[in-house]
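Hey, can you fold this one?
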Amino acid sequence: MKKLDADVIAEAALGLLDELGLDGLTMRKVAAALDVQAPALYWHVKNKRELLDVMARSVFASAVTDVEAPRQGESWQDWVAAVAGRLRRSMLRYRDGAKVLAGTYVSDESMWRTVELTLRTLEDAGFALPEAGRVFPILLHYTVGFVIEEQSRTGAEYVDGNPYELEHIGLEIDSDRYPRTARMVADTFTADPDAEFDHGVRVILAGILATARVG
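Sure. Predicted structure:
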């Protein structure tokens, strides 16, 4: 058995998410998966709040572990979009992966290194530091929020079927009274999530560029 530490505990907890979901995850169940008593965990994580923090750190670190500065000729928009895409894919590896990251405190070298690379990339593109500093939080919040919605649409928490299925939603919307809404919902729930995510990122980046003072 691996020596017990915060990283080992986080790995075990993430491994339980597909089965339990975030709401079903408890310190006791994580301890059982590690074949230890629950009090042994408290040397490393004091409660579920700290457990979520170390889980979030693991998810974030795995997303950015080999991120480097932009390649020659790569635009700052493409580089930033690629980082956001990495984070999305990392969260999608786990049921409720985005909820793990939402509202958690990630204090880790991987976070600071990624932020520093982002700031330097934007400064090289002509952004003043205060304006560059707004970009990472905006993209982080969009990415986490998008994946929360994306994962919610699996309907994993519902016992009587997935209410997000297009057939179900289609029955609830009166397409004669709300034809535009019905069309929008049909388009939304049949769209490629990869393309939709990338489109959202590009819209945000275009807005950032339009409102920034770039030298």
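Residues 30 and 36 are 9 Å apart (CA to CA). Let me know if you want another pass with a different chain boundary.
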